[in-house]
Design a protein that fits this description.
mainly alpha; 17 helices
């Protein structure tokens, strides 16, 4: 371990600010890709693209369980004596997980791809599999940088990923590549982790850090985190896939609903997802006051969300029509309720980070899986598409929040040194 990579203390305001700037740039890039796709592809075509965008967000979002596990273990490793302890290299584990999961995804495509991808099926499966392998390493490196307090490099990795997507999207528009080009743009950032390692000596030093536990223990903790991250990804990024699975042909109406869902949640969930490393590090540092530490981030999310609900209900319909064209027409009340649903998912993200920091991996995954199952069941209600979307996104996360808070409230305020420690769910 080198000095360049050694964790240097608690999460600071400057670290949050640096990640905040990177998050703003990342969000702007994401909006740019969605804007270009919506303008070029029209609502029906955009719904096809959005399903792939959501599918990629789903599988890569699941891989971000590796980010959470790596953040926690690298941060704990700074306070653990290495004598006679097993050692695990998180990036090596991530590489193996990436190869295996990508192969499994491609090998099982015949079973699920016909139900998900309406066009360019072979290309979609290939890009999805290769992109997943890359993002296993991407997420793990992000987690290691967060655990080591290397927030400048953390932000640089985020921005590089997002900027590569915009570059390919712009080239797609100029070259007239249509849907195929936007599929490539979606996965363009999968190699950004390698670019950062080549350019940054500090990142290379962090990449050599280890967790003082066995690979099996690391994978067990990561497994729970991946399961929960996968469930969260269904609600956050993969929702278009879930919507298509329960509604069938989405058509133009589905395209409008998906765009509205994406735009109303992005201002909250993009920065919150990007700051997972900050949140987990914060909750690890404040482990003796878990519920008190939870109140601050949750209150901030609720306050920002309230402003968002008001803005979406008043200015949202006009912004949607002006920004994306007259075909994208949605009622102000729909946009306000969808924003409220985004607030619920954001609060679930915060409580989830607190349970990860407390090594309550089973409770973490149980909360997210419960929320996802509840939302999926609510999407089957015999209601109009817009109404059942709102009900699912607003009510499902409340189930998961209840699970997380209940478990956190009854746990002793100590931090197990490794994920081998006994958990209570």
């Amino acid at each position: 371990m080198t000095d360049a990579a050694t964790p240097t203390g608690p999460v600071t305001r400057s670290s949050v600010a640096r990640v905040g700037v990177a998050t703003a740039l990342t969000a702007a890039c994401g909006y740019a890709v969605l804007y270009l796709a919506a303008r070029v592809l029209e609502p029906a075509g955009f719904s096809v693209f959005a399903v792939f965008w959501g599918a990629f967000g789903l599988v890569t979002g699941a891989s971000f369980g590796l980010l959470q596990q790596s953040t926690r273990e690298i941060r704990i490793a700074a306070h653990v004596a290495p004598d006679r302890r097993p050692v695990t290299h998180p990036l090596r584990v991530a590489a193996a997980v990436g190869v295996v999961t990508a192969a499994a995804l491609a090998g099982s495509a015949a079973l699920w791809a016909p139900h998900v991808f309406a066009q360019e099926r072979t290309l979609s499966v290939t890009l999805l599999s290769v992109g997943l392998a890359g993002f296993c390493l991407h997420g793990t490196l992000l987690g290691m940088l967060a655990g080591a307090n290397r927030w400048t490099q953390y932000g640089a990795l985020m921005v590089t990923d997002a900027a590569l997507r915009v570059v390919v999207a712009v080239v797609t528009v100029l070259a007239g590549w249509g849907l195929v080009g936007f599929l490539w743009a979606t996965v363009a950032g999968a190699a950004s982790w390698l670019m950062l390692l080549l350019a940054s000596p500090t990142s290379r030093a962090v990449a050599q850090l280890v967790a003082y536990e066995s690979a099996g223990s690391f994978l067990r903790g990561a497994g729970h985190a991946v399961a929960a991250a996968g469930a969260s990804a269904i609600l956050v990024m993969g929702f278009p896939v879930l919507l298509k699975a329960t509604a069938g042909d989405l058509g133009a109406t589905g395209g409008v609903v998906i765009l509205a869902v994406t735009l109303t949640r992005a201002p909250l969930l993009v920065p919150l997802t990007a700051m997972q490393g900050n949140l987990i590090a914060h909750f690890v540092d404040q482990r003796r006051h878990r519920l008190r530490a939870l109140a601050g981030p949750a209150g901030l999310v609720a306050a920002v969300g309230a402003v968002g609900v008001l803005a979406a209900g008043t200015a949202g319909p006009w912004l949607l029509r002006v920004g994306f064209g007259p075909d994208y027409d949605a009622d102000g009340s729909l946009l306000a309720w969808l924003t409220a649903g985004a607030v619920a998912i954001a609060l679930l993200t915060v409580t989830g980070a607190a349970t990860v920091a407390a090594a309550l991996h089973r409770a973490y995954s149980l909360g997210w899986v419960s929320a996802t199952l509840a939302s999926a069941l609510l999407l089957t209600l015999p209601l109009p598409l817009e109404t059942r979307t709102v009900v699912a996104l607003l009510c499902g996360p409340l189930v998961g929040i209840a699970v997380h808070v209940a478990v956190l409230a009854r746990q002793p305020h100590t931090l197990p040194r490794t994920t081998d420690a006994k958990e209570t769910t």
